[in-house]
Amino acid sequence: MEQKTFTVPNIGCNGCVNTIKNEVSALEGVQRVEGVVASKVVTVEWTTPATWDQIKAKLEEIEYAPEKA
Questions:
Q1: What is the number of other CB atoms lying within 10 angstroms of the CB of residue 2?
Q2: The model scores a pTM over 0.85
C-alpha cells in the first residue's frame, strides 16, 4: 500500500474535505482518504490499480490540486 500526505491550499470547509473524499475514494484502488480543514492537509492511501498520477489528476480536475512541493 502506498500513502501520501499533502497540502491542498483551497480547502475551506468540511464540504471541501467531503468532496475530496467522495471523488478520490471513487478511484479503484483508493483505500482511505482523510482531510483536516484547519491544516488543509489530506492523506490518501492506495493500492494497485490506483496511482499517484491518477489521484493527482482527479484532485486537479475537481479544483483541489495538491500544493506544489
A1: 14
A2: yes
